[in-house]
Amino acid sequence: MPVELNHTIVHSPDKRESAEFLAGILGLEVGEEWGPFIPVATSNGVTLDFATVPAGSIVMQHYAFLVSDEEFDAAFGRIREAGVAYYADPNLKQPGEINHHHGGRGVYFLDPGGHGMEIITRPYGSHVDPFAASS
Prior knowledge:
Radius of gyration: 16 Å
Helix content: 10-25%
């Protein structure tokens, strides 16, 4: 069996708020709470299991989601409609902009727990540079 990422735990001061926020932006479903977790499953089977931990113990993580152009439009619309601050870069230096890296579109935003979220329409390295020297 090939190695696949199955799930990851996302720490948050309020697991329900963070799970519902991300699911709402991405158009996903919030799963049934089980044990200390509230899951949000992606279409490729990876589950983000949100867990409540004390706010001072959370270390910012980065989560990137590959979406179609249509899904990007819908998610970006929800980001703007909700008044969520968004940026073209991971360092949050280009507010109110999106990027066009790798021949697609991308945007960064923070979830309620302070984690960096990213949606992109093209995987990193997928864009062929038309000006690159051919060998």
